[in-house]
Amino acid sequence: MKNSSALFIPPRIDLGLFFLRLTGSLLLLHVHGLPKVFHFSEELTRIEDPFGMGPYMSLIPAIFAEVICPIFIILGVGTRLACLPIIGVLLVAMLFVHPGWSIAEGQFGWLLLIIFTTLAITGPGKWRIAAGHHQEVRHGAS
Known about the structure:
Structural class: mainly alpha
Number of strands: 0
Largest sheet: none
Order of helices and strands: HHHHH
């Protein structure tokens, strides 16, 4: 007879995707997103403008990617789509704003790029708001 408590243990992949979503998004929010919101005026004077659109048009997409998108990713709602603006902002930062950085200097940005590209490929896993409250438990091969 199988251990009945095994029915309540989530598959490791879903737990891993939830952990990746939660920690990656919270890190992005804390380090990059929320400081841009709380210090908006100051950020307007400091933000890089690699395409000459002006500081406001550079800051608003960054805030969207670093605040709004991580919230959707944490909830597991539209995860793949929400990863795309983050990936875009990170690629602009790494390739256009800081092209001279070594891998070591840009490691935080590259690691965030790895996290959110992975989530864009895999999706959120089963632990998400959109999954609802009732999950079907399958027995046998997975």
